[in-house]
Amino acid sequence: MALVAGIDSSTQSCKVVIRDAETGKLVRQGRATHPDGTEVHPDAWWAALQRAIEEAGGLDDVAAVSVAGQQHGMVVLDENGDVVRPALLWNDTRSAGAAADLIAELGGGAAWADAVGIVPVASFTLTKLRWLARHEPENAAKVAAVCLPHDWLTWKLSGSTSLSDLRTDRSDASGTLYWSARSNEYRHDLLELGFGRSLIVPEVLGPTGIAGHLPNGALLGPGAGDNAAAALGTGAAPGDVIVSIGTSGTVFASSEVSPNDPSGTVAGFADTTGRFLPIVVTLNAARVLDAAAKLLNVDHDELSRLALSAPAGADGLVLVPYLEGERTPNRPDATGTVHGLTLRTSTPAHFARAAVEGMLCALADGLDALTASGAVADRIVLVGGGARSEAVRRIAPALFGKPVVVPPPGEYVADGAARQAAWVTAGGDVPPVWSADTPEVYEADPVPRIREQYAAARG
């Protein structure tokens, strides 16, 4: 039985799954936590990966490994391959001013959408490079290469110390602002616009490209950005839109066409198969539920029960969940707000319902934008930690206006990486087909007034 490994190095933790390459059967797995914060030294990811690999029983018997990771994180290396400074993560908003400057310098959002399919916001790598150049010139002067979290971990697994051996894939490269999914090429002119000079960047591999080898000879796949890996891990079919409720909220679908949205709401990323991955991203997702549970001093099961005990629309109580600023819409300095607080709505149940509905309404706005850009949404595939909430599962179809399919809980990003690793070993034009467990399906009549009162509160 040939085995493959998939790694998910996310914002909060590192997960490793070992699966049968032919059937996808889970053989073993491991996990380790990451430090909190929006600025983390990559060495912490490497240490967590080693712990997760050890818990998973090691990689000595696997034929291939692929790494999926949180997107956009700025990992800067000097000429010796040493990390210059802690990585700025996707959810670090200090580069919001740099994003605005870059938009103006290229001539507006439409110019960026034409160039690379996305419009600068603080999340993207190039804005962080601009911030570094402006605010830490001594560190900026040391930088010889820039890569992303999954690129760096793949490189470390290969044992190489040469910057020329850095490798990445289309999905992660497409979230940097200096690589175009449409033309499949780096825009070095935009990298120089942002940072002020050229840098070494990873080679971009195709879906089954080989990024290197483990010491035991096992192949290293090209890896992926986390959302693209999740799409591969869920086995989403045409007409499926994936809504992932994790640290961030994402709404995306595999597509034959790259979107061109000058507003920046829909980003034109790439997927893991050679196609495109139009995506809408919110900063605030599962941690909205965490915050509500903490505020009410309940666990997540009780938060769900409370939410389902309140009426739809929470009698007009609305939570606009911009607890960490927001990316979509682009409001990096925003805070969360509560509207419609009255004596009637001053109950734990109403607040719990408003928290769930507010989070889901923000994602429903993303779904509207995605379908307006041309994506087909016949049903919603709901994944991520937030999908474990019964209240989220039952309320979601009323806000999305579509049937909601919830696969069994799993590590779909790591599973997607494992499936890519199996594809690398098998070759061919399409990834291997793995058997899937039967999902749960939730349906409900739409309740337009919830979206309407949220829109009024959001402004």
Describe this protein's structure.
The chain has 2 domains: 3-222, ATPase, nucleotide binding domain (Nucleotidyltransferase, domain 5), CATH 3.30.420.40; 235-458, Nucleotidyltransferase, domain 5 (2-Layer Sandwich). The chain is 36% helix and 21% strand. It has helices at residues 42-55, 96-106, 109-116, 125-135, 137-142, 149-158, 170-173, 188-195, 226-234, 286-296, 300-309, 348-372, 390-400, 412-426, 448-458; strands at residues 3-9, 13-20, 26-33, 39-40, 62-69, 75-77, 87-88, 145-147, 167-169, 179-180, 185-186, 203-205, 212-213, 219-220, 224-225, 240-245, 249-252, 267-270, 276-282, 318-320, 337-339, 379-383, 404-406, 440-442. The longest helix has 25 residues, at 348-372. The termini are far apart.
In short:
The chain is of the alpha/beta class and 459 residues long.
Distance between termini? Answer: 56 Å
Total count of strands: 24
Helical content (DSSP H or I, runs of 4+): 25-40%
> Would you state the CATH class of the largest domain?
Alpha Beta
Structural class: alpha/beta
Give me the CATH superfamily of the largest domain: ATPase, nucleotide binding domain
For the biggest sheet, the summary is:
7 strands, mixed
Find the CATH topology of the largest domain.
Nucleotidyltransferase, domain 5
CATH second-level architecture of the largest domain: 2-Layer Sandwich
Structurally, the number of domains stands at 2
Overall average residue pLDDT:
96
Uncertain segments are: none
| C-alpha Rg (nearest Å) | 21 Å
Strand content is 15-25%
Structural shape: globular
Count of helical regions: 15
Protein name: Xylulose kinase
Keywords: ATP-binding, Carbohydrate metabolism, Kinase, Nucleotide-binding, Transferase, Xylose metabolism
Domain Carbohydrate kinase FGGY N-terminal: 4-218
Pfam family, one: FGGY_C
